[in-house]
Amino acid sequence: MCGIVGYVGNRNSQNILIEGLKKLEYRGYDSAGVAVYTSEGLQVKKSKGRLANLESKLGETPLNGTIGIGHTRWATHGKPSDVNSHPHTDNSLKFSVVHNGIIENYMVLKEELAAQGHVFVSETDTEVISHLIASLYEGDIVKAVQKAVSRMKGAYALGVLTEHEPDKLVAVRLSSPLIIGVGEGENFIGSDIPAILEYTRNVYILNDGEMAVLTRDGVELMTIEGNFISRELFHVDWDIVTAEKAGYDHFMLKEIHEQPKAYRDTMGSRLDPSGKKVVLNEVGMTPQQIKAIRHVHIVACGTAYHAGLVGKSVIEKLARIPVETDVASEYRYRAPIITPETLVIVVSQSGETADTLAALREAKRCGARVLAITNVVGSSVAREADDVITTWAGPEIAVASTKAYTSQLIAFYLLGLYLAQTLGSQDDAYIAEVIAELKELPEKVERILAQSEAIKNVAEQIATHDNLFFIGRGLDYAVALEGSLKLKEISYIHSEAYAAGELKHGTLALIEEGIPVIALATQEDLFEKTVSNIKEVTARGAHVFGIHSEGHYELAKAVDEVFAIPATLPLLTPALSVVPLQLLSYYASLARGNDVDKPRNLAKSVTVE
Ligand code: F6R
């Protein structure tokens, strides 16, 4: 996720900006840049890659000045490159902007500004903001920014600097975090507290729809409509590591809690305001090409493979096209039958997994069209695929994938609906119903997260065991596989996920007195059958923790402990039922004293075969 730093004071701003950006590196980024007001006017330096690249450019020709803005970019609109890096300027080079978030109506604004003669050099949505502010400027930067934001739709945190008023730094927040650091004769902006913690512990936290005007001598807070606000300063008493985790004990817990936002961002402008259809502009297949698809292969590794198992059910149910899901390391060596009528979907959070990339290349070699679902714009997978659906989960730092997995599920729901509406395989009313239910998922995840304490109690019990089982049928089985993987990787407890109906064909022999079994029973049409399978294990002494959808409270009679997830369409339950399993693994790992964010033997990005 992008990082913003801004400074106005009496010190050399370049150094403060770079040091601040270093403190935001943990958020993930692919390029960086700074703009400083110098004796020669506003000057910008930016560079693709690590901050060291930018530092070496600044080492050759430093920018001397006491007011500036800096940014680390995590690509959204446009690949990582020098030109797409922030800060962005207008054509006069007198206005400079750094931005976190997404401007949803940037194409409309861009066309309007281009018609007025503005020339754009980057592929970003941010560049539009600098041009818009420049076009609205009439001698007052604060008013120009206010007018500009009234035209912008989306989510943003902004830092704005103009050569016309070189002692002012303007900051705005709408749905993207931004804080103001207050010092002695110097003031700061930061997208996160670590960026400024070295210089001051006194901050104002901007709320949505608020802005700040910073000079050397003070900070004025106001709404974006221009009404002044008075606010108490907040004194930060955490250390830098705690600040990076935004108060959570671990990145994994932070990322689990970021899921409602990741769902909203991934759906974002892809849901038509009518609520009746999905808009996937990034999928370049024509309706004829979609109609020509005879089979779909979903290929991925680990957690992304588990998302692909859900994706199989979603596409088969919605689009009525046969789907196979395969692990990437097997796929390419089993001579899969790939034809030009095969759509191959590769799923990869990092977009750099060697096995997935090799499968992608094999699919392309055989003439298939490849669609990627990835979380990293400009990654190898994103660059090599024909179409890309980006999941807007933001960078995932913890090795155990949580918000990336659930965002992949959202991407599959969107894709399934898109295929269905193009193929006419579902009626409009059903598509509208699924869309309406999708929109409710973020709030339902919040309700699950509010009950974390109940899951923690169960986790502390299972942490004392060395073996356990996850069981479920249909989509519950796909989620059971993911729950089991999560538990293994961070708690080091051995677990197996089984299709509940398959237990009696062998695995039942392992069920003995007291063994924990996590049973998912959220699928309406399979509920009774799952309860029968649960009875097979309780009869042999298993201690069963059941997960059901609200309404099916009778499960309590068949198991030892229950947890209810909010009701939704059966097809959408994986996006809810996995959340208690993520929490279960987290708390079990914690109870065992493990390094939750960095489990043994594992790496975040697996770039070897
Ligand atoms: C588990 C996990 C891994 C990854 C797998 C694929 O929590 O994160 O199983 O899902 O290594 O990684 P990506 O999605 O980056 O291709």
From TrEMBL:
<dbReference type="GO" id="GO:0005829">
    <property type="term" value="C:cytosol"/>
</dbReference>
<dbReference type="GO" id="GO:0006047">
    <property type="term" value="P:UDP-N-acetylglucosamine metabolic process"/>
</dbReference>
<keyword id="KW-0315">Glutamine amidotransferase</keyword>
<dbReference type="Pfam" id="PF13522">
    <property type="entry name" value="GATase_6"/>
</dbReference>
<dbReference type="GO" id="GO:0004360">
    <property type="term" value="F:glutamine-fructose-6-phosphate transaminase (isomerizing) activity"/>
</dbReference>
<keyword id="KW-0677">Repeat</keyword>
<dbReference type="GO" id="GO:0006002">
    <property type="term" value="P:fructose 6-phosphate metabolic process"/>
</dbReference>
<feature type="active site" description="Nucleophile; for GATase activity">
    <location>
        <position position="2"/>
    </location>
</feature>
<dbReference type="GO" id="GO:0006487">
    <property type="term" value="P:protein N-linked glycosylation"/>
</dbReference>
<dbReference type="GO" id="GO:0005975">
    <property type="term" value="P:carbohydrate metabolic process"/>
</dbReference>
<dbReference type="GO" id="GO:0097367">
    <property type="term" value="F:carbohydrate derivative binding"/>
</dbReference>
<comment type="function">
    <text>Catalyzes the first step in hexosamine metabolism, converting fructose-6P into glucosamine-6P using glutamine as a nitrogen source.</text>
</comment>
<dbReference type="InterPro" id="IPR035466">
    <property type="entry name" value="GlmS/AgaS_SIS"/>
</dbReference>
<dbReference type="InterPro" id="IPR017932">
    <property type="entry name" value="GATase_2_dom"/>
</dbReference>
<dbReference type="InterPro" id="IPR035490">
    <property type="entry name" value="GlmS/FrlB_SIS"/>
</dbReference>
<dbReference type="InterPro" id="IPR047084">
    <property type="entry name" value="GFAT_N"/>
</dbReference>
<comment type="subunit">
    <text>Homodimer.</text>
</comment>
<dbReference type="InterPro" id="IPR001347">
    <property type="entry name" value="SIS_dom"/>
</dbReference>
<dbReference type="InterPro" id="IPR005855">
    <property type="entry name" value="GFAT"/>
</dbReference>
<dbReference type="Pfam" id="PF01380">
    <property type="entry name" value="SIS"/>
</dbReference>
<dbReference type="InterPro" id="IPR046348">
    <property type="entry name" value="SIS_dom_sf"/>
</dbReference>
<keyword id="KW-0032">Aminotransferase</keyword>
<protein>
    <recommendedName>
        <fullName>Glutamine--fructose-6-phosphate aminotransferase [isomerizing]</fullName>
        <ecNumber>2.6.1.16</ecNumber>
    </recommendedName>
</protein>
<feature type="active site" description="For Fru-6P isomerization activity">
    <location>
        <position position="604"/>
    </location>
</feature>
<dbReference type="InterPro" id="IPR029055">
    <property type="entry name" value="Ntn_hydrolases_N"/>
</dbReference>
<keyword id="KW-0963">Cytoplasm</keyword>
<keyword id="KW-0808">Transferase</keyword>
